[in-house]
Amino acid sequence: MNKALSIILLIIIPVNMIAQQQPEVFQTLSFGSIKPTGWLKEQMQKDINGFVGNLDLLVPELINDPIYGESRLQKNSKAKDLGNLKAGDVAGDEQYKWWNSETQSNWWDGYMRNVFLLDDKNGIEKVNHYVASILATQDEDGYIGIYDVELRYKFNSENGELWSKASLYRGLLAYYEFTHDEKVFKAVTRAVENVMQNYPIHASSPFSSGTSFNGGVSHGLTFTDVLERMYFHTQDEKYRQYALFLYQDFSNTYQSEADVQLKNILNPTYKLKSHGVHTFEHIRALIIAAYTDSNMEIDNALKTYLDRIKQATTLSGGAIGDEWIAERHSDATHTGYEYCSLQELLDSYCLLFQKTGNAETGDLIENTFYNAAQGSRNPQHSCIAYLKTDNSYEMLGSKNGEIEPDRKQTRYKYSPAHQDVAVCCNPNAGRISPYFIQNSWMKENEKTLVATLLMPNIVETTLNGTKISIENITHYPYENSFTFKIQLEKNMPLTLKIRKPIWVQNILTSEKYTIENDFIVINRTFMTSDEIQLSFSTDVVVKVDPNGAHYFSYGALLYAKPILAEEIAGKVYGNEFTDFTYKPQDISKYAFAKKHKSVYKNGIIKTQLINLKRNKKETVELIPFGKTILRQTTF
Asked: What is the pLDDT of residues 66-90, one digit of tens each?
């Protein structure tokens, strides 16, 4: 072979054979750049006045445990009594040692984000004291965590080393983004460096922990969230390379929650089986790996994993796992979803949306928030369901009356804490709205701002150094009209992109626009005070789920037939907060009528369904899924 030709081939062949690193379409904004308005702000204020703002008073022994400071775990530390019923749990005592770190760190993460977005002065002062107390626990070598010197980084069994750090550092980084307090960012930087030094890249195995249940170790893969945000702030590639290393080590070690391991994803016969919240939070680690490594295998694995996730998601956006997925596909009656999983799936889809710019992902995010998450809140009291089903025929502890012989199931009820199970879903319920809001606007470049998710909010940022403020005035998703009020420092050309939801039939606006990849693109010179008005038209849509059942939607909302229920008060926390269960007063079930007339008016769908008890067609009213407690959703 000609020498010159061989040199050319050596150059060309690798370029053709190796996949190029994928470009990222959008850029996220710093936390605090986007704030809620309208009904969403009102709901968050109710949460702060309710269980989200008072969880530290409801379960003080969990939230106030100084596990990161004077009560760090030592060799002789005992498992803590968390006040939960352990019958049927697979976790051993080791999990109960680190559990308070998850409870309190996730709660503080959500609490601080809420009070900052609501400008709650008392809450902000409380957060300031908390952050100062955490920074005071940092050791000279940078360590911030829950283990004493004799234990840290020296594990061969279940532990919460990385998980306790991930849940804490996510909140600290949000605090830094809002306050710009450099000492907090410096502390987190030193703490992350301490991890990277003690678990050196490609020369250690952070996820090696024996062959027993290791849920806390598996949760630790979310430390990639912290690394991704560190990359956002520094653009230092070492953070993403370390995140890739963590995913690779996770894939090559024993894990009891192994759905995301590369070998399992690439196995065409493998079915999702793990604890749901692990399966859904681990999407983010796989996304980061795919966008760090120019490896077609990981890229294909991400596509495969996302397909499996969709099969494990109910029509409301509910991420099934009650609490394990157990090789099942979603079912409106027989598969429940955990509130923790709703937050983790939403957060994962937000990262995916930022990377891909795929408008369909925005629809998935809105579906999870506006339907499954809203439908797991109690519309009358400050409490949430730990587990919920799309067809919710009763909420008396068990899943629609099903009996689990190995445990006393209590998760299917509404509670401000759920301490009898685990105080994990309620802290995550405080996180979901701020995370949803933070991803509602993104930049495509320094000339283009993108309304990725639709909701009442206001964004303040800069484009090419020029301050810009846009308020989205809307009652969406309960109405489908929008006024974008725009404030600029000076008249300037600007491109605004607004995601067009998949259900939109027509766009009504006086603006000149084009459609690009399901985004409405408006490109013109905007005045210092300007506005865009638009609305979407749609109609009642009847779809069929994978099990052959029919369901109704209008716009972004799923609709259901509410079931009249008797409310039963349970455990009381203080004087204001109570557990509630619900017993149906009418057990009639309905079937789909082929010849039906479905009409939407004033937030209600009127249609005809067959009453199976009477075997007769009746006119019924369906209301938004998120405003129901007991309900029939599929027919």
From this structure: 999 999 999 999 888 788 866 555 5
Q: At how many degrees (to 10) do helices 339-356 and 276-292 cross?
A: 20
- The C-alpha atoms of residue 593 and residue 616 are separated, in whole angstroms, by 10
- Which structure tokens are listed for 198? 């003690």
CB 581 within 8 A of CB 630: no
The count of C-alpha atoms lying within 13 angstroms of the C-alpha of 254, restricted to the half-sphere facing its C-beta, is: 10
- Cα 525 to chain centroid distance, Å, stands at 36
DSSP 337: E
pLDDT at 82: 85
Look up residue 36 and give its two tokens: 């809620």
299: which residues sit within 8 A by CB, 6+ positions away? 19, 22, 290
Contact 170, 224 (CB under 8 A): no
User: Quick one: which H or E segment has residue 619?
Assistant: strand 616-624
Mean of the pLDDT values across residues 356-385?
98
568 pairs with which residues across the strands?
Answer: 581
Q: Which residue has the tokens 């069929």?
A: 544
Burial of 37 (C-beta count, 10 Å sphere; 0-12/13-18/19+): middle
Domain range list for the chain: 59-83+91-255, 442-537, 542-579+587-632
Helix and strand totals (H; E) in the chain: 17, 25
CA of 349: how far to CAs of 285, 306, 410, in Å?
12, 10, 29
Q: What interhelical angle do 296-311 and 276-292 show, nearest 10?
A: 150
CATH 3.40.1440 fits 442-537, yes or no: no
Cβ atoms of 440 and 105 closer than 8 Å: no
Q: What is the mean pLDDT of the chain?
A: 94
- Rounded to the nearest 10°, the torsion over CA 309, 313, 318, 319 is -30
Give the pLDDT of residue 87. 54
Is residue 7 very low, low, confident or very high in pLDDT (cuts 50, 70, 90)? very low
CA 251 – CA 260 distance, rounded (Å): 8
Environment class of 365 (CB within 10 Å of its CB; exposed 0-12, middle 13-18, buried 19+): buried
Average pLDDT of span 314-324: 96
Taking the C-alpha atoms of residue 27 and residue 445, their distance in angstroms, rounded to an integer, is 8
* Structural contact between residues 111 and 430, judged by C-beta atoms closer than 8 angstroms: yes
Whether residue 302 contacts residue 369, with contact meaning beta carbons closer than 8 Å, is answered with no
d(CA 120, CA 125): 9
607, 622 in Cβ contact below 8 A?
A: yes
pTM: 0.95
> Are the CB atoms for 386 and 412 separated by under 8 Å?
yes
DSSP secondary structure code for residue 202 in this structure:
T
Q: Residue 444 corresponds to which tokens in the numbers above?
A: 């495509």
Is 379 in contact with 467 (CB distance < 8 Å)? no
What's the whole-number mean pLDDT along residues 531-548?
Answer: 97
The residue count for the chain? 635
In the chain, the amino acid numbered 517 is N
